[in-house]
Amino acid sequence: MEETNNSSEKGFLLLGFSDQPQLERFLFAIILYFYILSLLGNTAIILVCCLDSRLHTPMYFFLSNLSCVDICFTTSVAPQLLVTMNKKDKTMSYGGCVAQLYVAMGLGSSECILLAVMAYDRYAAVCRPLHYIAIMHPRLCASLASGAWLSGLITSLTQCSLTVQLPLCGHRILDHIFCEVPVLIKLACVDTTFNEAEPFVASVVFLIVPVLLILVSYGFITQAVLRIKSAVGRQKAFGTCSSHLVVVIIFYGTIIFMYLQPANSRSKNQGKFVSLFYTIVTLLLNPIIYTLRNKDVKGALRTLILGNAAGQSHRD
User: Fold this and answer.
1) Which span out of 47-56, 100-109, 166-175, 188-197 was modeled with the highest average pLDDT?
2) Which residues pair with 12 in a beta bridge?
3) Distance between CA 123 and CA 212 in Å, rounded?
4) Cα(204)–Cα(198) distance, rounded to whole angstroms?
5) Could you tell me the superkingdom of the organism this chain comes from (predicted)?
6) pLDDT digits (tens, 9 = 90+) for 257-296
């Protein structure tokens, strides 16, 4: 019993990239830079979507929800990772690890569903433009967004609760960058067949099914766009949807690699870099892609900045 409780009493050793000090210092600077940019970019999107009445549409409602998920998701991982990388003692408390496990799992799952919801919104906008307002009415939008958040909460409570109940028999070395379900399952000293199968089933629900729905939606969108006679109209439709598709490919691709590929088929550093990519890098790409490729958001940002500058000049 004393050996079993050792992990909860002493916490975990989060190794990360500690075996490569130069790489660790380089990654510390990169992660800090990306984290700050991600916070600024996603916060800017939320502000303009709330303050600019022209962006009070379903598309930007879901985009602001995505930015909110991204801020919370990256904050559940990056600060703790930066603290651990910047000190010699790589210990992370048991409670901190469990909290990170629940929060990161819930928010990652919510993002998976939210991206599928955004694909449906684009399908309705492009393929059913005359009925778009009737289809995507405010009550449905609120229900879809709430469903995305709630589904993440449910899967987190289910998967993580099963994982934290596994006896670790004193194993406390996590050769990873943060507390994640597949990594903790590998520490268990009992048969984990059921625990490995449950995340696989959840991955099918939260990864494969949304990806299939997104592909079907974009199949219909492509057909509808190709029927548009105006070249300007086709370009506008493709431009609106391509940004979302880029985010989808990057985000789902890295998570599918982590959760659906057998753990013994990838190197330990490969898994760390993949996790780093979908928890830090991808969440920075969202505001970059949606602002640089979206005239409405760029215009709203410009108006917000110029308006604040004018107000400050007037007070002076």
Assistant:
1) 100-109
2) 92
3) 14
4) 10
5) Eukaryota
6) 777 766 565 666 777 888 888 888 888 887 777 766 667 7
Q: Label residue 265 exposed, middle or buried (CB < 10 Å: 0-12, 13-18, 19+).
A: exposed
pLDDT of residue 265: 56
93: left (phi over 0), alpha (psi -120 to 50) or beta: beta
What string of DSSP letters covers 90-121?
-EE-HHHHHHHHHHHHHHHHHHHHHHHHHHHH
pLDDT (tens digit, 9 = 90+) per residue, 119-154? 899 899 888 888 999 999 999 999 999 999 999 999
The C-alpha torsion from 256 through 261 and 266 to 270, rounded to 10°, is 10
For the chain, what is the largest distance between any 2 Cα atoms, rounded to a whole number of angstroms?
73
Taking the C-alpha atoms of residue 65 and residue 290, their distance in angstroms, rounded to an integer, is 13
Residue 125 to residue 217: CA distance in whole angstroms: 11
Rounded CA-CA distance 95/78 in Å is: 17
**Secondary structure (DSSP) of 21-63:** HHHHHHHHHHHHHHHHHHHHHHHHHHHHHHH-GGG-SHHHHHH
- Residues comprising the chain, all counted: 316
Q: Is the pLDDT of residue 250 over 50?
A: yes
Burial track 58-70 (b if 16+ CB lie within 10 A, e otherwise): bbbbbbbbbbbbb
Residue 100's pLDDT band (cuts 50, 70, 90): very high
**Of 156, 206, 209, the residue nearest 181 (C-alpha):** 156
| Residue 29 binned pLDDT confidence (cut-offs 50, 70, 90) | very high
Task: State the Rg of the chain over Cα.
Answer: 21
User: Given CA atoms 270, 272, 278, 280 in this order, what sign does their dihedral have?
Assistant: negative
Strand order across the beta sheet in which 12-14 lies: 91-92, 12-14, 173-174
User: 168: Cβ–Cβ under 8 A, 6 or more apart, which residues?
Assistant: 4, 6, 7, 187, 188, 189
Residues 6+ apart with CB under 8 A from 220: 123, 127
